[in-house]
Amino acid sequence: MKVMGISGLPGSGKSLISEMAKEKGAIIVNMGDCVREEATKRNLSLGETAIELRKEQGDFVVAKLTIKKLKSLESPYKNTLYIIEGIRSPYEVELFKENFKDFLILSVYASPKTRFKRVINRNREDDFNKIENFNKRDKRELDFGIGTVISLSDYLIVNESNLEEYEEKIEMFFNKKEDKFYK
């Protein structure tokens, strides 16, 4: 099972990497979706649920839910790439490395100013439209350890340019990795 993680703060551009990989045949599992499912069950916000889950079941809880989901999706094709989108904690990275041989992480960086503009424009349910709330969310993500994950990534893409340039950077990454992922 070939597994790769994607990390980055909200609005950095993780979803586009997943979309482009999916077009190449990758299977995507979004860690946030695992938390969203649990938040719906508990009738709590995404942030409250993430904090509660970690208090109740430890730092590995979201990673364990994700691993369980990944294994249930296992493809009959030997070289299918599985992408875990939204890794936030070094504990999660540790568990993924224990469970998946050759696990690697690609992180995306974009400045807070750039990310805030994107978050406002995408108008997703769990996004914030005030800078104060956006900054609180960043702080929460950083408290989970996402800064450590990004700093220890195997690969980093800076996403401060336009969409076309960013897509080229993603394509270049996958072209370099194609032998490993898709053959």
TrEMBL record:
Signal peptide: none annotated. One of its GO terms (molecular function) is kinase activity. Pfam families: AAA_17. InterPro entries: P-loop_NTPase. Its EC number is 2.7.4.25. It comes from the Archaea. This is Cytidylate kinase. It comes from Methanobrevibacter curvatus.
